[in-house]
Amino acid sequence: MKVGIDKISFYTPQQYLDLTDLAAARNVDPNKYLIGIGQQQMSVAALDQDIVAMAANAAEAILTLEDRQNLGLVIVATESGVDQSKAAALFVQDLLQINPNIRALEIKEACYGATAALQLAHDFVQLHPQQKALVIASDIARYGLNTAGEVTQGAGAVAMLVSEQPHILALESLAFYQSKNAGDFWRPNYSQQALARGKYSEELYLQMFTQIYQRAQQKVAIDQLAALLFHIPFSKMGRKALKTLQDQIPEADYKRLLARFEQSILYGQKVGNIYTGSLYLSLISLLEHDNSLQAHDRIALFSYGSGAVGELFFGQLQPNYQAYLRPQAHQELLQQRRRLTVDEYENIFQRQLVTDGSCQEIVPPTTTTKHYLKKVDQHERFYQ
Ligand code: HMG
Q1: What is the pLDDT of residue 364?
Q2: Residues designated catalytic
Q3: Is the C-beta atom of 110 inside 6 A of ligand 1?
């Protein structure tokens, strides 16, 4: 039985910072950000777009009434959760009017979370083929103003509907994974910002990719892969990982993988790091920009979450998968975003929700964004 991604979509907040503006404000050569880091813009989440609102906005676009009735599992993967106890999936269930007969939960392991969720969803549907599973990756990447990580921030969510006989990508059971307790990146409970040993995190990412790839190549020949996708915290990171293969694989294979890699980073370069959704944003970007891929092409996906877990897994494109994508809607979503000044971005960045139990009404979005955080009152969040 085939199980995999039946539908996929992303959402990102409707405002962004252009990284040339950030470079000017930080007195940095813009080419460091544009070429050295490989990013152009980053989406900025105001208080109304927390990870619950973004998750609901991403999933709203792909769920029919029938899907909502047939779901048996809803997982929100995030490392920017809004509650230490209650799962974001429960807010999402309510906002999207999903049937009550589901398992709803939240999952965390840095940027690996969505891959863990997708694998759980895959196994769930294998066992319960008449039901579907919804996996949503939703995150706000925050390192702080004037930090080295600032240019690698971003915000957004990716929603994936997992079903049997999927229309987009059938997932294989074959996967290669590795875990290791490491201090490359973390965020203590009391901190709004992540802490990172930047250069070490890059080294560990590359080390895990190399070790996992070495195991995988014994079972999967590189010429069988139409594309190799990466977790993209910033596009240079994926480029560096791909480059590790340049002298190891035939030139024609490297050229093919590089050409498809270029298509896979186009959305992420404008959205920024969305942590656990980043790999899946790469998948959407590839599928919505590349017109040379064909049904049955095999795609490899490398997932990396700091802390650290890495996994390389595979999927096969399905006939007529293009008909189930949303390129126009995604391009409009990006084009409609408002360009912020650096002052506006800094102001938004520093705004916080009250923590003293008082009532705070949140300024609603000026756009047509369907779901948003409306207020906090008595320490509870209320959504529209
Ligand atoms: P930095 O100190 O700005 O680094 O931090 P840099 O000074 O080395 O510059 C970066 C690159 O720009 C270098 O290229 C420079 O040569 C180049 P590289 O050596 O890397 O190839 N450069 C220029 N290029 C062109 N023209 C110029 C110019 N100037 C310099 N004029 C760093 C960069 C990524 C470390 C920082 O932004 C950071 O700490 N980011 C956060 C951590 C991170 O994203 N790590 C990635 C791996 S870990 C991961 O992916 C997991 C994660 O998503 C979290 C999770 O799992 O939840 C982060």
Answers
A1: 85
A2: 79, 111, 231
A3: yes
